[in-house]
Amino acid sequence: MSDDHGHGHGHLISFDPTETDHDHHEATPASGRAVRIGIGGPVGSGKTALVAALARSLGERVRLAVVTNDIYTTEDADFLRRNAVLPPERVEAVQTGCCPHTAIRDDITANLDAIETLEERFGDLELVLVESGGDNLTAVFSRGLVDAQIFVVDVAGGDKVPRKGGPGVTTADLLVINKTDLAPLVGANMDVMTGDATRIRGALPVITQSLVEDPAATEVGAWVLEQLACVPARS
Amino acid sequence: MRARALLTVERVGDRSVVRELRSQSPLSLVPRRGTAATLDPAATVHLVGSATTPLGGDDVELAVHVGPAAKLVLTGVAAAVALAGTSSLTLRFTLDEGATLQYLPEPTVVTARADHHTLLRTELHETARVRLREILVGGRAGEQPGRYRGTTRVATGLGSCPVLHQTQEFGDPALQASSAVLAGNRVLGTEVLLWGADGEAATGESWALTPLARRGSLATAVGPDAVSTQRALAQAVAAHPGWAESSSERTLRSLGMSENAVRSTTEETP
Amino acid sequence: MGLTSLVLADARFPGGGHVHSGGVEEAVARGLVQDVETLRGFLLGRLRTAGLVAAAFAAAAARLAARGTDARGTDARGTDARGTDTDAWAAQASPAGAWAAQASVAGAWAAQASRAWGALDAEFDARTPSQAQREASRAQGRGTLRAVRAAWPSPVYDELGPRPHHALLVGAVCGIAGEPPEEAARCVAYLAVSGPASAAVRLLGLDPFAVNAVLIHLEPALDAVVETAVHTAAHTAVTEDLPAPGAPVLDLLAQAHVAHRGRLRLFAS
């Protein structure tokens, strides 16, 4: 009898992200592996909805898979499966030991294990979206984990959020201001938000969107495709 | 008292027979005899007498060899009560190709002034099957347990690959109380099963069945008393597919016999 | 304590340890651990059982890795640097012993070391009957291996395979870095309680100062575990004789934790 009882690849979610036998990880991004894009942001800002939209709009063109870091471990993964956005085997959930920011920044082991499990399961992956657990404005992804990252805030969180800054808003490769359809309802001033964001981020891009108005997240999707094209590691 | 005992069982035709049996006080080995015994393909030997009441100074060793394709059931007839003083029991089981052994002793009660040590070593051929039960009771009712330390080692195949190596201890209040060790429970039951297919792990409120790394499974149960612990342990064992399959085969066989009996009577009726 | 064991024992070491609670999450769910006092009992029991097994194997691995590192160095000068206890381990793993006859010293050493690592791995498995705990140990080993290869490169890791038991790997790293087996044992014995203690703080919102004090109060027990671990690793002729204390409830908790897949779980173990 061997160790492979009860955690075969047939499971919807692997609770042991290290179950595969090969460790292909290299310290620096190497050619031939999928581009990894992190999606972070506060609780409720719409990260999972964005991942679902991207999976729907890019899924047919790009071979992609998703790692979720939801603090309840299966919440987001279940959402993605329930909505038939991705086949279950393309979604891996990781436990973060109550520390979602640690798992994407300080100790990225569990996430790397999950990504590598997906890469081994699907030899030809082009894109892995890593969705962080909902956290605060200081949470960013380690460069050892992702090649590029999107930070998602929403208008309902208050129009002062971009001005407050923090590493996510300031340094993410893309800032998405989500749920613009709610702005009038919550009294958020979009001009203030985009103005602050642009000022604080310099040349880094900002996209405002409403998934109610554009369920395909067209602009963000285009940005992601750009990343796929321009990451030099993919030869 | 120091005792060295030996038991060898061999397969003869479709029966298993006790070939060699040497025991000395305080250990007695009693083979089951009579009609039921001759119908059973397995040999059954009872551990009886003072072997089951280790006393200070008792040092008992029993070597059991189950030959190719032979079947042995080794049971106790009453709870072993470890009494005051240092005592030890060493069991060495060797199983050849296709052999089976069920070691099903009654619980061992570690009384307050006992200092009892056990070693259970099993070496079995990769085609042999073994089932090893151990039930430890920390003290008689209302009594704090004395010291107990028991090691179980099971190794299989040509390279004597270890599949299980565990030492259980009783009598240290800190360990007894720790929610990592016994969580205040008085009784610990374990059953090692190298018996056909090992399936998925299974678990209940106070028991678990887990596949071992290389071969076999371990059923574990804890509880406040021997009865509930044995019941929980039986649930864990019932979840083992290899054991379940072989016990349902036995049930079918016995049912088959009674069905035939029923048929013959009904045929005669008209 | 050298820098290597200090870094390996650091909660910030990026080896994936922070997602494991070592049974605390399930113990909390069952009400077995609910405050600082019950945590103290849990940690003491864990230290003296799972912690002792891990410490003894880490010490043995440190010895083996140190020998491997020495042997590689001395082989280059044409010297036979094999050690007696490692011989015994290897001999136990392969009673035939025929492999050594024709091979060169280096080749013989490699085969011997390989068998010795295999024996350690098998004996650790045999002392970890809970499948969930073996998986947690190997998951942490794999995560640690990634970090270790970057900081302490060595060919020794190839012997341990892609998913080594965490205690064996930590022991190996200490041995490679030239730290004594005692530090390897101390490091994993400490990790056997520090991770679960931190998990309890996070899960129950316990007073971190009180929990930290509990860890410090464990020092005599930790010293005793380290002493036993180092002593047995140094004086047992065969791996088989390394300590094997069981922790039945820890096994039950670990198995129950993975069985409740649908339930809220914040930790991987």
From TrEMBL, chain A:
Domain CobW/HypB/UreG nucleotide-binding: start-end pairs: 37-207
Molecular-function GO term, any one: GTP binding
GO terms (BP aspect): urea catabolic process
Entry keyword GTP-binding: yes
Localization (cell): Cytoplasm
Signal peptide: none
GO cellular component, one term: cytoplasm
Region (Disordered) residue spans: 1-33
Role played: Facilitates the functional incorporation of the urease nickel metallocenter. This process requires GTP hydrolysis, probably effectuated by UreG.
Family affiliation: Belongs to the SIMIBI class G3E GTPase family. UreG subfamily.
Protein name stated in the entry: Urease accessory protein UreG
From TrEMBL, chain B:
InterPro entries: UreD
Gene Ontology, cellular component aspect: cytoplasm
Keyword terms: Chaperone, Cytoplasm, Nickel insertion
Location of the region described as Disordered in the Swiss-Prot/TrEMBL record: 243-270
TM ranges: none
Keyword RNA-binding: no
HAMAP family linked to this entry: UreD
Similarity section: Belongs to the UreD family.
Subunit structure, interactors included: UreD, UreF and UreG form a complex that acts as a GTP-hydrolysis-dependent molecular chaperone, activating the urease apoprotein by helping to assemble the nickel containing metallocenter of UreC. The UreE protein probably delivers the nickel.
Described function: Required for maturation of urease via the functional incorporation of the urease nickel metallocenter.
Name of the featured protein: Urease accessory protein UreD
Gene name linked to the record: ureD
TrEMBL record, chain C:
Chain segments annotated as coiled-coil in the UniProt record: none
Protein's UniProt keywords contain Nucleotidyltransferase: no
Signal peptide positions (record): none
Keywords associated with the record: Chaperone, Nickel insertion
InterPro entries on file: UreF, UreF_sf
An example molecular function term from Gene Ontology annotations: nickel cation binding
TM ranges: none
Highest rank taxon of the organism: Bacteria
Gene3D superfamilies in UniProt: Urease accessory protein UreF (1.10.4190.10)
Annotated PANTHER family: UREASE ACCESSORY PROTEIN F
Protein name: Urease accessory protein
Organism: Pseudonocardia oroxyli
Lineage: Bacteria, Bacillati, Actinomycetota, Actinomycetes, Pseudonocardiales
